[in-house]
Amino acid sequence: MTAVPEFEFRTSTACKYNNNDPRCVEVATNVPDKVAVRNSVTGQTVEFTAVEWTEFLSGAKLGEFDLSA
Question: How far apart are alpha carbons 65 and 69 in whole angstroms?
Answer without folding.
Answer: 13
